[in-house]
Structure formats: C-alpha cells, structure tokens
Amino acid sequence: MKCRKIKFIIDSDMENVPLVGMVVNKLSSLIPLTNIETYQIELCTVEAVTNCIKHAYGGRSGNEIEIIFSISPERIIIEVYDTGKLMEKDFLSRKDLSTPKIDPHDLSTISEGGMGLEIIKKIMDEVKYQRVKEKNCLIMIKELTKEKINDSGKSQLLTNRPKGGKDGT
Amino acid sequence: MELKDRKEGQVLIVKPMGKRLDASVALGFKEKMTKFIKEGNELIVLDLSEVDFMDSSGLGAIISSLKALGGKGELAISGIQEIVLQLFRLTRMDQIFRIFKDEKDAVSALSK
After folding, report:
1. What ipTM, to 2 d.p.?
2. CA B34, B45, B59 angle in degrees (round to 5)?
3. Best exposed site among A57, A79, B8, B106 by fewest CB in 10 Å?
C-alpha cells in the first residue's frame, strides 16, 4: 500500500475536537493496528488540536485548524497547522513526562493540565514544531515496523512498542 | 455530558454516560463533580465503564475533582476500559487513583 494522505480543516471550536478524533480513528483502520495503538494515534491528534484551540487561539472559535493525516505501512504522519500564537521557543524540548515526580500523598505534585504535549512525546517517535508558510505546524510521526510473519503464516503488521515500558498490546 | 449518580451507604457512585471524556465535555464534567463534592460527598466511585475515549483534558477534570476533595475522603475509579487505562498508566495517574475492576469492589473498599 502506498502512502495515502487526507487534509481536513476544522473551525477552532472544542465541539469539533471529537470529530477529528473519530475521523483519525477510522483512517487508522486502513492498516492493522491494535485497539490501543489506534487509540494512541487518535489521542495524540486530539491533544494537538486541543492545544491549538486553547493556546494558539486562546480558546476562541472562528479560526482554522488544518490537519494532514498520512498513512502507509511504514509510518503514520499527522501534521496540525494553525495561524495563531506561536509556541514558546524550546517549549517542546522542555516537555518531558519522566522529569516531574509524583507523590501520591501530596496533591500539589499532581498537575491537572499541560499534559498534552508530554503525552504526544511519550507516544510518538518524532515530534517537530516549525513555521511553514506563515503557519505554525506540529508534526507527529509514528514509525511502524515491517511486516512480520506469525506462526500461522498469516501476514501481520506490528508497530513499535510504545516508549516508556507501556505494554501497548 | 450526562452523569448518573446514586448513593450506596456513604459512597456516591458517579457514572458518565457519554462515550468520550475529552476537552469538549471536560468543563461540564468538572463542574458537576465539584457540585457533588460541595454537597458533602467525600467518598466517590467514578464508574468509567461507558467511556471508551479519554484525553488529557478529561483526565485533568478527574484530577481537579480529586483536588476539590482537599485531601479528605477518596475518589476511586471503577470499570475502566483497558484502552482508557493506558492514559492513566502513561501519565502515572494509576499511582494516584485506586482502580477497581468493578463498582462493587470499589464501593466495598471505600466503605471500609
């Protein structure tokens, strides 16, 4: 299967976020991913779009968010474009889930927000943020392994296990 | 998002009836949970059996509810689907919330 690509545009309204998630979920079924892997792809896309609405557009509707979803047996690439406020320089590289320590007995160590980018970085193999033709673009890449032949001889596609020791099966 | 609630002894059981707990419904969910807590409910079981998609905003709303308890009582999770549990593991919230297989186990544990 060659690379297939679709571009869609939504208005920057939270009500539209589930629509993006559902579309990406369906598109991911073009290749044989597990339910958890499909969820992770949907989750990262939803997080990226939500961040655009909250941070790039300050929660205001009436602005465009463009999503380009590319899928092939080798990788999935999701590009999310906005024309709002630029992300702070180096913000992406500073985000790291492994850094903050959580103390179950101290609620102040638990954050209720700002987890989106950390989740994306944890799941995706590559995450880039750049300016493209006067737009801000978050690019997320999930690499997929080559076809493996299982015991029954049936061709089966397996993705890389998610980083950080998650089981992902 | 509709939340069904009922009391079993001192434990309030709250069940979100929507399939998605995401940014589009997180605020409404948080407001309803805060109302339950302000009404004096300190032992709460959140039954997530109907939820098959959750993002960080949905999870953040659950964390806000925990913080609204102010260290009193407990907010426990039950009936969580394996897919949604991944988000708890990824963000290490499985270390913060007690997670039970079903509502019965959760109510039993919180009632002790």
Report:
1. 0.92
2. 60
3. B8
